[in-house]
Each structure stands twice: as structure tokens, then as C-alpha cells.
Amino acid sequence: MSGLIRAKAVYWVATLLVAAELGVGGAWDVSRTPQVRDLVDHLGYPPYFLVILGTWKLLGMIALLAPRFPLLKEWAYAGVIFTDTGAIASHLIVGYGSGELAILIPLALLTALSWSLRPADRRVSSLARSRARGGGP
């Protein structure tokens, strides 16, 4: 397997895992499942925070998987990193179980891996080059 094909395969595996986490986590947040509600309560966030966070997770999943829209993807990746690092900081500050960190840190790293391996047509730089040549988004 060539390096380019391997990188593309790793990109898609990482991206699909990130998208799956966003989809499942977003659905749990929006539906305010008891385990997520208890976690958010323990971290000190208000219950309505789940609906806001879950909605953004679901929109982020769509943005990462949809073709084109590289600028939207950049914002989605940023949102996922903000969410992951915010969750890590919240867990550390409140002293919540370190077992959660064993999930949260790899998710943040997986997001960074997906972002770093994204193909050229999913990068903002490709949008700028297309506009410079007179093409549309």
C-alpha cells in the first residue's frame, strides 16, 4: 500500500471514528440520557447545556462527513477540539474519574490526526486556490 493510500485510509478511519463519537454523543446529549445528564450535573454545567452541545456535535458530524465546504470543516474540527479539551479540563478541575480521561484524550488526538491527514480538497487552502483561479467554493 502506497503512503498516499495509507494516509487516506487512516484519515477516513480517524474521521469516521470522530464522526461516530459526535453522532452518538450528540444524540445522547440532545436526548439527555440519564448517564450524560448525571455527568454534566457532576461537572457543574446546567442541564440545557446538553441540548446546545449535542446540537453542535450533530452539526459537526455532518460537516466533517459532507463533501466540499473546507472552511466549514475547519470550524467543525476547531469545535471538536474545543469540546474535547474543555471536557478534559472540566474533568481535571472537578476531580472526576481518570477513566474518563482515557477516553477523552485519545478522542482529541484522533481529531487532530483526522485534521492533519485530511485530503487537499477538504482543506481551506484548496478553497483559496480555487477562488484565485476564478472558481467558486
**Helix count?**
6
Order of helices and strands: HHHHHH
The secondary-structure class comes to mainly alpha
Largest sheet: none
Could you report the average pLDDT, rounded to the nearest whole number?
91
Percent of residues in beta strands: under 5%
The strand count comes to 0
Radius of gyration: 17 Å
| Percent helix | over 70%
Shape: globular
Low-confidence stretches: none
Keywords: Membrane, Transmembrane, Transmembrane helix
Transmembrane segments: 9-28, 48-66
Subcellular location: Membrane
Pfam families: DoxX_2
Summarize the structure.
The chain has 137 residues and is mostly helical. Helices cover 81% and strands 0% of the residues. It has helices at 3-31, 34-43, 48-65, 70-94, 98-117, 124-132.
